[in-house]
Structure formats: C-alpha cells, structure tokens
C-alpha cells in the first residue's frame, strides 16, 4: 500500500492549481495547501487515517475558495483503489494568528486497505 500521506499529497498536487506541501517552505507563496496527518490506526490491514488540510490565501475569501476546491478534490480521492471510505469531519476558518495568514482547514477521515 502507498503511504497515506503520499497518496493524499500526490492526489491534491495533481488536482489543484496551487502548490501542495507537507510543511511550510522558506518562502510560502500567496496561496498554497498544507497536508498534515493528525491521527491514525491500523487493524487487520485496514488503515484509519485523519488529515487536516489547510488552505492558505492572501485574503479570507481566497482561503475559503481554495478550501472549497480542496473539498472537491478530496471527494475524487474515493476513486483510488486503496481508499475504502472517505469523509469530511469538519471544515472551518482557521486563520493563523501567529503568522497573521488567512487559512481554512478541512479535516478528513480516510479508511485505506493495503
């Protein structure tokens, strides 16, 4: 089975028209996405994985719009042979007060089979 992080990162990178990373860059662009695994477990070759997908934009509206594109892209991930189920747990304004960057966050739960 492909590493869950790589599966989501590759899928979003191929589907979205903004850079997708797993960590901040030395100089982040105006709009980009960060994929962060926030939990998971494995039982009998069934992987349950949670991701927080953060959409950054130069304005609150652009961050919100990018979040909507992320959700549309994530809905397509169910077509992957490895993905058994996929659900949006929540999404919300998650502006980063420490960096003063506009950000939305979508939290997904995935079930993968290897």
Report on this model:
The structure is a single chain. The protein has 114 residues and is an alpha+beta fold. The chain is built from two helices and five strands, in the order αβββαββ. The protein has a five-stranded mixed β-sheet with strand order 1-2-3-5-4. The radius of gyration is 14 Å and the shape is elongated. The mean pLDDT is 95.
Topology overview:
Layout: H1 4-15, E1 20-21, E2 32-43, E3 46-57, H2 60-76, E4 83-93, E5 102-113
Parallel strand pairs: 1-2
Antiparallel strand pairs: 2-3, 3-5, 4-5
Element pattern in H and E: HEEEHEE
Q: Helical stretch count? A: 2
Percentage of β-strand residues: 35-45%
Bin the helical content. 25-40%
Poorly predicted segments: none
- How many DSSP-defined strands? 5
Query: Biggest sheet, open or closed, and with what strands and sense?
Result: 5 strands, mixed
Instruction: Give the assembly state of these chains.
Output: single chain
Q: Give the C-alpha Rg.
A: 14 Å
Indicate the overall shape.
Answer: elongated
Distance between the termini: 5 Å
Order of strands across the main sheet: 1-2-3-5-4
Structural class: alpha+beta
Mean pLDDT comes to 95
């Amino acid at each position: 089975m492909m590493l869950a992080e790589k599966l989501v990162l590759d899928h979003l990178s191929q589907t979205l028209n903004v850079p997708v990373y797993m960590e901040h860059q030395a100089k982040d662009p105006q709009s980009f996405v960060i994929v962060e695994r926030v939990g998971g477990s494995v039982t009998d070759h069934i992987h349950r994985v949670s991701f927080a997908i953060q959409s950054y934009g130069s304005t609150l509206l652009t961050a919100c719009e990018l979040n909507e594109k992320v959700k549309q892209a994530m809905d397509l991930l169910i077509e992957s042979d490895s993905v058994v189920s996929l659900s949006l747990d929540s999404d919300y304004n998650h502006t980063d007060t420490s960096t003063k960057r506009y950000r939305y966050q979508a939290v997904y739960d995935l079930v993968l089979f290897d």
